[in-house]
Amino acid sequence: MGFQLNNIIPWGRSFEDYLEMFALIPEDLERSILDCAGGPASFNVEMKRRGYRVISCDPVYQFSAPEINQRIQETYSTVVEQLRQNQNDYVWNDIKSPQQLGQLRMEAMQRFLEDFPMGKAEERYVTAELPKLPFNSQQFDLALNSHLLFSYSQHLSEDFHLKSVLELCRVAREVRIFPLLEISGNLSPFLTPVISHLQQQGWTVEIEPVAYEFQKGGNQMLRIFKPTIN
Fold first, then answer.
1. pLDDT classification of 3: cutoffs 50, 70, 90
2. Cα distance between residue 184 and residue 195, in whole Å
3. Where are the alpha helices (DSSP H) in the chain?
4. Burial of 181 (0-12, 13-18, 19+ CB in 10 A)
5. Contacts of 65 (CB under 8 A, 6+ apart)
6. Inside any domain, residue 230
7. Domain total of the chain
8. Per the domain annotation, does 201 fall within a domain?
9. I need a labelling partner for 168 at 20 to 30 A (CA). Which of 137, 158, 211, 221 fits?
């Protein structure tokens, strides 16, 4: 049947979210970056406005901006209501309410939608999905993956996780994945076996704290890289 738009809930994050989720420093922004499973985030367009170039990939990019926007409008109220019903699972510091969070996410998604047609023509948005990506080996300095791997451990198998992480490692010299918790708030059961497999293949794998925490306890990312040999 293939990828179906009505099976997803678009929820886009901003440039500032990415900086905190992935502990990005100014030197990172100069690197060649892949945002894998980027969805309707505004990171790509906000990086472009700052003079940088990011390639984002996601299966949702096969659809048009009006089609993606329609799905956003269909699901937005449901997401905000779910946040309201589960407020105790989240940290409300800078963001004070589900309504405020929804407004921030909608602003990010609108920036994405405005940029998407031009960005797709410029090949900054590429239709692709894990565990097989249409990029060359080591094409990128850094690959980012947010709220897919580990988050959906109840829906995506351990084999999918391992193949996907290895594919990210194939196309990028460094990989960062955030968060390490399932949507339920539990630590993903696939984290330990994935780390073990990567270490056996010679990758350095580190769990690092980050400044971003919205899901309670969700303030760590997985960082994967090959050690530099002098």
1. low
2. 21
3. 15-21, 26-29, 43-49, 65-85, 98-121, 158-171, 191-200
4. buried
5. 113, 116, 117
6. no
7. 1
8. yes
9. 211
Q: What's the pLDDT score for residue 1?
A: 44
Kindly report the pTM of this predicted structure.
Answer: 0.96
pLDDT tens column, 71-113: 999 999 999 999 999 999 999 998 999 999 999 999 999 999 9
Compute and round to an integer the Cα radius of gyration of the chain. 17
The secondary element (H helix, E strand) that includes residue 190 is: none
Distance from C-alpha of 47 to C-alpha of 105, rounded to nearest angstrom: 17
Instruction: Evaluate whether residue 21 is within a structural domain.
Output: yes
How many other CB atoms are found less than 10 A from the CB of residue 228? 6
Residue 38 is part of which domain span? 5-225
Buried b (16+ CB within 10 A) or exposed e, 194-218: bbeebeeeebebeeeebebbbbeeb
DSSP at 226: P
> In the chain, pLDDT over 70 holds for what percent of residues?
98
> Does the pLDDT value for residue 152 go beyond 50?
yes
Q: What is the mean pLDDT of the chain?
A: 95
Assign 188 to helix, strand or coil: coil
Please report, for the domain that includes residue 137, its CATH number.
3.40.50.150
Using CA atoms, how far apart are residues 112 and 124, in angstroms rounded to an integer? 12
What's the pLDDT tens digit per position in 25-45? 999 999 999 999 999 999 999
Please report whether residue 32 resides in a domain.
yes
* Structure tokens given for 203: 């990758």
